[in-house]
Amino acid sequence: MEKQLFGTDGIRGVAGEPPLDATTVFIAGKCLGQYLHSQASGPQVVTGPRVLIGPRVVIGEDTRESSRWIRETVAAGLQEAGVQTVAAGVVSTPAVAYLTASADFAAGVMISASHNPYRDNGIKVFASNGYKLPDAGELDVEGRIFAMLQDGALLQDGALLQDGSGAKPYRMAEEPDRSLAENYIDFLRRSIPSGKKLSGKLVIDCANGSASRMVQEVFSGLGMELILLAGQPDGRNINLDCGALHMENLQKAVLREKAALGVAFDGDADRALFVSDRGRIVDGDGVLHIASRYMRQRGLLKGNTVVGTVMTNLGLERALESEGLRLERTPVGDKYVLEQMLRSGVNLGGEQSGHVIFSDLATTGDGLLTALQILRIMAETGQPLEELLRGLSVFPQTLRNVRVREKTPLESMPQVMEQIRASEKSLGNSGRLLVRYSGTELLARVMVEAESAEQVDRHASALVRAIEQSIGAQR
Q1: pLDDT of residue 75
Q2: Contact 269, 214 (CB under 8 A)
Q3: How do residues 340-353 score in pLDDT, each as one tens digit?
Q4: Which of 66, 92, 112, 114 is catalytic?
């Protein structure tokens, strides 16, 4: 069965509009609570209204202006279902994953829309082991949500208006427990053994998001001078012309400051992209190349294999082959990368977008952890980022988004399929293409990579035209 609410990274939409209107958010919390009870083992003891000795859920949030009320509303739904909630405050998504697994929580919830604009938000759910809730769990919660919406019996105490306009029905009784964030920061700092220090300047773009509250504590003491960009969140400037989707400011700052390295996070700090001292942008593929070589040389890379996605550049696949390593591909989404890593017993994987998973250390992609690992490799090898990238030749690649009016199956559109087949035949073994729908937006994504930029542009433009003529949205 195909999921309708949960996309590749939780439930996401415009804050205040379905499915992130107050009513649906409350119901989502309540249904998650019911699901957790259904999965719980052992006695469940009720001690009073909404007070239960049983499941506990930790909830984190990013810096969007809507994150607070969504967090409170999810918590209200969970409490209605008899689940205890603990607020972690403004933390990264990986922090919630770590805390869920390390502090005996039945689940973790992160309120964030990652790299999206501030008007968007989302609800990400982690299971008790710190991994993202599996598809079966998401489908179970979805079924409960739809059943409750259709039933119309939302609450017994009238906390939400019948039209769903009660935007802020509850306030959490507890203030955020900052010790939780401190526990996560301690974990990050322990991941870097004492010893060699780096010198020079480190420029960090915090995206005006979750990393803004954490980078000083995480990266101080490494021997580098910290220069922070986009570290003053105001609720509306998260990801605004900054962070991992807007690397130009970081590039300029690294070159201007003659810095040793630049790091950019996204809004919830689960991804990291880098800029070398020469201004070269290094994405997740570059990180996988650096980390795989380092780990293989030290006998740490399990199975001599790296897991990537269908978006992973062909240049990385060939670089790995030259090192005697294999690349396994999955659908887009760090959740699917991790699932394949667990099936194959592999401990390194990630996405081009900067989600990199070091599974010996974490259960999800973690931008802060990735940055620390790159700094560790630089310190231990004594090599700058440019030298560590030696051997990786990236194929020209483009990713174009086409707004569509509906997600019609690609195979049912003759014009689109004809162009896909023609482009695949023309590229042969010297390139790749991928056409897929976004998991969170009404977009078709067209990826083409080839040996020349001219080939990339020609085939991508042809595919975009075919999609626009078939199901393009009106402008």
Answers
A1: 95
A2: yes
A3: 999 999 999 999 99
A4: 114
